[in-house]
Amino acid sequence: MGQEPGTNDEIKAFATNKGFPGVLMDKIDVNGKNSSPVFSWLKYASKKEGAIQWNFEKFLVKKNGEVAGRYGPRTNPVSILPDIEKALAE
Predict the structure, then answer these.
(1) Which residue has the higher pLDDT, 87 or 5?
(2) Residues 39, 9, 31, CA angle at the centre, nearest 5°?
(3) Exposure of 43 by Cβ count < 10 A (0-12 exposed, 13-18 middle, 19+ buried)?
(4) Residue 79, pLDDT above cutoff 70
(5) Do 6 and 16 form a contact (C-beta atoms < 8 A)?
(6) Residue 13 pLDDT more than 90?
(7) Are 8 and 26 within 8 A, CB to CB?
(8) Domains within the chain, CATH numbers bracketed
(9) How do residues 48-72 score in pLDDT, each as one tens digit?
(10) C-alpha distances in angstroms, 65 versus 8, 14, 21, 87?
């Protein structure tokens, strides 16, 4: 999506220098011919196929691997709590 200009190493160094305590994963393509297989599958398996439009698009995956939902970047994560609870109960 062309959002982050740095290399993976540059991004990791920046985050480390800023005290980021989490684990960072490498940048990947989520759309197009070089799309990560995980995101290709998530888009295909969701009931809402199509390109990922922006950062923070969310997918809810059940314990059995079924995609239970796909939510746009403006969807507040708190608003999908009922869907998450339902998926966990199954």
Answers:
(1) 87
(2) 20
(3) buried
(4) yes
(5) no
(6) yes
(7) yes
(8) 29-89 (3.40.30.10)
(9) 879 998 888 999 999 999 999 999 9
(10) 29, 34, 29, 11
